[in-house]
Amino acid sequence: MTAFFALATSLLWGLADFGGGLLTRRLPALTVVVVSQTIATAVLGAVVVATGGWAEAGPRLWCAVAAGLVGPVAMICFYRALAAGPMGVVSPLATLSVAVPVGVGLTLGERPGLVQVAGIAVAVAGVVLAGGPQLGGASVQRRTIALTLVAALGFGTVFALIAQASTTVTGLFLALFVQRVVNVSAGGAALYAAVRRGFPALPDGGLPRASLPALGFVGLADVAANGTYAVAAQHGPVTVAAVLASLYPVVTALAARGFLSERLRAVQAAGAGLALVGTLLLAAG
């Protein structure tokens, strides 16, 4: 069950990243984040009301609040790093986020077997290679590296927090709703501040209505990924769930190949293959 839900997480996050990347070609990235998360928040609010999730309110919700605060900071740092440095360096480096939930799992006493350790090593190497790391070319500024590492730490922290935010399905709906409310509040404040500085929040023609379904998909896929990851972490080793969930860059690369006919470089194809081998080892272990 852990492997299934963790792989579902990587699929959903990969597709969400792919959709978000396409949307940012027409809309500002911060606007995409705020609008997509607002749509997801509205849907989650309806689900919480329908399932009676408010009854699950408790101290664990502070983990959801913290995840909602950390998430936007990590995303802003990640976008700034992507804008300042080569994506072929930034994207693979950001996968270091997996170190946080794996570290939490080890601290809690999880001890993966030899096969699982091998699977973790192979899968992580595959994810890094699937990002298409640039092994040569211009040097990367220290500020870009620092921003990427901060983003990775933030993403990994969100992984760990959301896994602790609830223990039941209805409680998970409530935790995800609270996280998204905080996300939208923080992102909206950042967008407002940016607009005050002259940053255009929308293109000249306003928000294209044709983009709303795609924005909704990105927001809901991201929420669903958080949910499936929480289930995976609750029903099995966090070390395994975190690594399998981190395979989303492979999904994004394959989606670009399938829908945009982008050719995978040899290093990316090799990374995808290694990620698959690592997945099989983790599942077998």
From TrEMBL:
Sequence ranges assigned to domain EamA in this UniProt record: 3-130, 144-282
Q: Which UniProt keywords apply?
A: Membrane, Transmembrane, Transmembrane helix
Q: Name one Pfam family in it.
A: EamA
Membrane-spanning ranges: 28-49, 61-82, 113-132, 144-165, 238-259, 266-284
For the keyword Membrane, the answer is yes
User: Into which family does the record put it?
Assistant: Belongs to the EamA transporter family.
Q: What is this protein called?
A: DMT family transporter
Which species does the entry assign this protein to?
Answer: Streptomyces actuosus
Lineage, broadest ranks: Bacteria, Bacillati, Actinomycetota, Actinomycetes, Kitasatosporales
